[in-house]
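ok so i was messing around last nite and threw this chain in just to see what happens. nothing serious, just curious
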Amino acid sequence: MEYADGLVFMSPSPSTVHQQVSGRLHAKLFNFLDGGKCQVFSAPYDIHLYRDDLDETKIFIPDLSVICDQDGLKENRFVGVPELISEILSPSNQSHDLVTKMEAYMKYGVKEYWVVTPMLNAIQLYALTGEQVYQQIEVMKDKGTIKSSILKGFQVHLEEIFR
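result:
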């Protein structure tokens, strides 16, 4: 369950393909980040979006979150703003991930948002601009390499994620 703007959102369990894609992307991020100050967390792990200047409660469970702020790590959740969030779309959750979550991630300042669509073998990468809005940086479908704009040196080959 997730909570935003006084509403509770429930999602069905993810599909096998969803879990396979999530696992492969998690492994890539884990290996890239291992030994550094940032860590990757996979669902189910609560992200309580928090900034001092915003007085709202939003609790989401992203598929993958890259967290560099160690102070925000609590016993069973993270409180703050992750550097990068990746959501893997399913037919049942597309509007929630592409509207509700995307808007919240942008508003709170998540620097990079990856939208992964297994049904199309596609990844869309959005980066936060200086005006605090998401700009679509890259879209890859079926094959090619997508590169993070904030995790310097991190790249993903679509053929490896969607095999």
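not much to say yet. The radius of gyration is 15 Å.
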